[in-house]
Please model this.
Amino acid sequence: NEDRNRDIAWDGLEQNDIKEQEWEALRKIANLSNGLVPLEEEAMKAVESGDISTATAFVFGEEYGNTIQKINDLTDRTIVEIQERMDNEKRIILMLQTVLGMSFLIYFIHMIHQSVKTLKFSVQELLTPILKVSEQMIIMSKGNLHTRLDLEADDSEVGQMVSAIDTMKLNLVNIIDEISFILEQMGLGNYNVTISQKYVGEFIQIKDSLLQIVEEMRNTVGTIQG
Model:
């Protein structure tokens, strides 16, 4: 009457993601536990009247002991079933994380590939100065984003292209560094990450997708931990 441990435990269960089939088992356990209350009350009356042997017979008798055994067996079985379900959900989440990560990388590589193809096509239609731009894009397509283009940015069409390429390289380097850092942190189990780089144009889709992945994984891991 003072501790009310069963009520406290039940309130705690209601705050967790328990499935209906599992609730059925828990309700059976609760009913079995509640069925012991009359025996306990009879035992307390016997104690108050000084009849210790009768009180002992109530709480150490066959009926009480069998019910306790049923409660323990059903509790153990239910805990194992819940744990197995949570383990399966965890495996699915990890698999989903891997698929999302691979999809994100494939999309990113495809976007870079399309950019290189478009710029190569433009180079074929321009004059000699654009050949240097072509050489620069070939270097970038090989993964080197840190070489300097031997052309000056100015108000001309070529100069504007030079400026655009330099800006694209800087954005790609910053985005790749940030994405690599965030994926590394997620791999270490840290989902409290922030995106600080400025994403412009269609790069915003990458930022939105990354934020969604991080938020979903943070919520999912939080649920699992809970």
Q: What stands out?
A: The chain has a mean pLDDT of 80. The helical segments are 5-14, 20-35, 37-48, 52-60, 62-123, 129-141, 157-187, 203-225.
